[in-house]
Amino acid sequence: MRGWLAWIGFAALAVGCGGSYDASVSGSVTLDGAPLPRGTIKFNPLAEGPASYGLVGNDGSYAIQTGREPGLPSGDYAVTIVANEPSVEQDPGSGLPPRPGKPITPPWYRSAESSPLKQRVEPGKNRIDLQLTTQPPPGWNPRGGRRSR
Amino acid sequence: MPLIAVALALVALTAGGCRRAAPAATVQGSVTMDGELVRSGRVAFHPVADGPTCYGNIDAQGAFALRIGGGGGLEESEFPAGEYIATVVVTLPSRTDEAIGEGGPPQPGARLSASRYAARETSPLRITVAPGPNVVDLDIDSAATEAPTEPTGETAAGAAEPPDEAADDRGADDPPTPAAAAETAVGDDAAAEGKPATDNSAAPATPAAPATPAEGSQP
User: Fold this and answer.
1) Which domain holds residue A128?
2) Is the pLDDT of residue B5 over 80?
3) Average pLDDT over residues B125-148
4) Axis-axis angle for helices A2-16, B2-16 (nearest 10)
């Protein structure tokens, strides 16, 4: 019987190493106190590894996934957020792609270098409510603060 | 009882996907365009050397998983680890409203992504796929950001609008030529973000003839 249990454990390990992550993150996003109605949240790992993403729902809620799997590895992240107005349709039938809409979220939230949102993700469930503001963070430089080159 | 145990273990091994012998890999990931997750489109990984080309459809969450062959299944396939060039076409979601009346397949939506990502000859996305599971982020530019010198009607008109503040705001330092744009994508986005979980990844690629429009390869 003990051997049988060991096999079960082994089987669980074998199945588990394919995919799932040890942490999950969900929450809400507001801009100056109002729910952000659309956009993309990106968790940029400070260590090596792929980024994780979540779409912002109509009510400002989001949940993070990595690739197609829910969740992400625990660790430290810089959080970036990009939201634009809906893209502008061109003439119907012209075959032209829509033009991108105007940005909603301020530019300093768009790159990991300039985003003031640093988050530690603990193993297990995390609820992280992101409160964005149109006030630039201290030291924000609109010309140089976007990307380090 | 031991027989059952062995059978269970075999099932677990074959179904679990924890293979360490062959240099087999799986790839899933996310696609963002101008920083936002995309809702519809297609990703392909073309081997630099010999091997199968792998495809994946982008789902409503901006995620994809690659499989060998073009079928519509959701399962990911194992394929050889190695060097790949990724191509990406982001489209508007299919116009199902038009297809229902005609009984035909849905019309494919218009292409939204920059044309250079559509063909392996021009795509700057060179990806190293490591053995085992990989997660690859692909961050690409939209067609609206393409330089306004494209010769063909479709892209010329699409790019006729100068990049507005949306493009400005992303901090692209106004790539003046397609070549510069490709370099930007390689230097910044691909190298910084197109990496599998295992680190060695999107090695900087030489932008291949970026002036060639990729329209011809998109039927």
Assistant:
1) 21-132
2) no
3) 89
4) 10
Where do the domains of chain B lie?
Answer: 2-211
The answer to whether the Cα torsion of B174, B89, B45, B56 is positive or negative is positive
B7 to chain A, any CB pair closer than 8 A? The answer is no
- Give CATH superfamily name and number for B2-211: Carboxypeptidase-like, regulatory domain (2.60.40.1120)
pLDDT score of A41 more than 90: yes
Of A5-19, A24-38, B142-156, B200-214, give the range with the top mean pLDDT: A24-38
ipTM of model: 0.80
B160 with B147: CB under 8 angstroms? no
Nearest residue on chain A to B13, alpha-carbon basis: A14
Report the candidate in A117, A98, A121 with the shortest Cα–Cα distance to residue A108: A117
Q: Write out the two tokens for B7.
A: 């059978």
Q: Is residue A1 part of a domain?
A: no
Which A positions 115-144 lie with beta carbon below 8 A of chain B? none
Residue A84, domain CATH: 2.60.40.10
Contact (Cβ atoms closer than 8 angstroms) between residue B53 and residue B85: no
User: Does B8 sit within 8 Å of A11, measured CB to CB?
Assistant: yes
Length of chain A: 149
Instruction: State pTM to two decimals.
Output: 0.68
- Closest by CA to A37, choosing from A26, A49, A25, A29, is A29
Half-sphere exposure of A131 (CA within 13 A, CB side): 2
Per residue in A45-96, pLDDT tens? 999 999 999 999 999 999 999 999 999 999 999 999 999 998 777 776 666 6
Q: What's the structural domain count of chain A?
A: 1
In a domain, A89, yes or no: yes
Cβ–Cβ contact B64 with A under 8 A: yes
Question: Within the 103-162 window of chain B, which residues sit less than 8 Å (CB to CB) from chain A?
Answer: 110-112, 133, 135-137, 142-144, 154, 157-158, 161
Tokens of A146: 């976007």
| Gap from A8 CA to chain B (nearest CA, Å) | 8
